[in-house]
Amino acid sequence: MDINQITPDYAVSPQIAASDVAALVEAGFKTIICNRPDVEVPVEYQADAIRAAVESHGLRFVLNPITHGQLSQENLDLQAEGLAADGPTFAYCASGNRSTVMWALVNAATTPVDELIAAAARGGYSLEGMRPQLEAFAKG
Fold first, then answer.
1. CA–CA gap between residue 33 and residue 35 (Å, rounded)
2. Which of 8, 26, 72, 107 has the most CB atoms around it within 10 Å of its CB?
3. How far apart are CA 11 and CA 3, in angstroms?
4. Do the beta carbons of residue 60 and residue 33 sit within 8 Å?
5. Residue 139: what pLDDT?
6. Residue 20: closest CA among 101, 92, 102
7. pTM over 0.85, yes/no
8. In order along the chain (140 residues), what is the average pLDDT of each group of 10 residues?
9. Residue 122 Rama label (left phi>0; alpha psi -120 to 50; beta)
């Protein structure tokens, strides 16, 4: 499992397995956000399997599947709720990109776009192509 740190309190990765949850506990994460729809993965990687492992370790699990082209205000609100939780938050999807995009969109109104893009880049994700959308979110 690759943990890609975006900020001190937020990291992302590609799909995780239930067996990865112990390492997330050791890394200090308190909330796990699933941004991957179940239709993209086999049963052992679907949200219910990951949720069971997360909750058995005493962590909070947020199910917020993001489908390309289907982003809603409800998705943004759920991601913001997960990001606002006490302690570090970890999110996963197919590559970590959707989880990074969601973090950037949620924070666009309060963090300069250049800082969002730089933080994503430090984590290994390029959001430069989203600059116009991030700027639009920044303006509200």
1. 6
2. 107
3. 6
4. no
5. 87
6. 92
7. yes
8. 96 98 97 97 97 98 92 95 94 97 96 98 97 91
9. alpha
